[in-house]
Amino acid sequence: MASRVRLGNLREVRDHPLGMTEAGFRAELTQHDAFTRGRGPFPGDAGSVRSERELFVTAPDDEVLAVATITGVREYDDELVVDGDLVVDHERVGTRLLIRTPAENVFSCADEESAWAGSVERARWVYVRALVEVATVKTASYDRRIAGADPAADPGVTLATADETMQVVPRYVMIHRSGKLRLGGPYADTADWDGHVEPWTDYGYVDCLRLDDVLDTSGDLDIDVLRPLTSRAAAAELLESLGWDKVIRRFVDDRTRLQ
């Protein structure tokens, strides 16, 4: 689940806590503008909004206009204002939530899985997010080991230790038909994905993105190769170079089968 807000009719506003003079839906809003308008203040349950990680801002027809990571929720005149970080080109932007709500300008809940129904064209962003997530986790483990090293230690030994730490977990990302991800590992020499189809399909997982396959390696990973992949743009460029039809085949096949 995630929090969502459905923008209502266009209107002028005064004394807005975010300094806005106009609120509501307007055609051709940028993702940034949609997020700004979707932050509130709107009615909602503060506890429910705080418990969710993401905010979906939608148009009146329930198309997702912007997605942000929620960093805080504050009250303003008995309503709520959401603070967060916009996730540019989030994979759900452009999809349409099938669990509709007639309520406008109210923070409520959204079913993440429903956001994917009928939106195979957005499937590539699941894989971009998967690659970014696994690259981010691995580079973070490398950086933590470097930051926590004894300053008096041999720099070569410190780098080697950080590199060794980075090699282990995770090496792949399981991909659920809903777009949810599960990091996996611990080693590069895991059995071929086809050998794991039956157990994991019982839980809705339909594909697996392996770093070894993406980077065409069976040996140690290079921090200088992984670090750029923490950027969505760089991850998308790499996956596109491999051919989207090949990369997302199992996910798309499963989505098509369920329709």
Helices and strands: which structural class?
Answer: alpha+beta
Report helical residue fraction: 25-40%
Number of strand elements: 10
Largest sheet, in brief, is: 5 strands, mixed
**Poorly predicted residue ranges:** 186-198
Distance between the termini: 22 Å
How large, in whole angstroms, is the Cα Rg? 21 Å
Number of helices, counting only DSSP H or I runs of 4 residues or more: 10
Broad shape: globular
Characterize the structure shown.
The chain is of the alpha+beta class. The chain has helices at residues 31-38, 46-50, 123-147, 155-168, 197-201, 211-215, 223-226, 232-242, 244-247, 249-258, and strands at residues 2-6, 11-12, 22-23, 54-58, 64-76, 79-86, 108-110, 172-176, 181-184, 205-210. It has two domains: 3-96, no CATH class; 120-257, no CATH class. The protein has ten helices and ten strands. The strands form three sheets. A five-stranded mixed beta sheet has the order 6-5-4-1-7. Strands 9-8-10 form a three-stranded antiparallel beta sheet. Strand 5 and strand 6 (79-86) form a beta hairpin. The radius of gyration is 21 Å and the shape is globular.
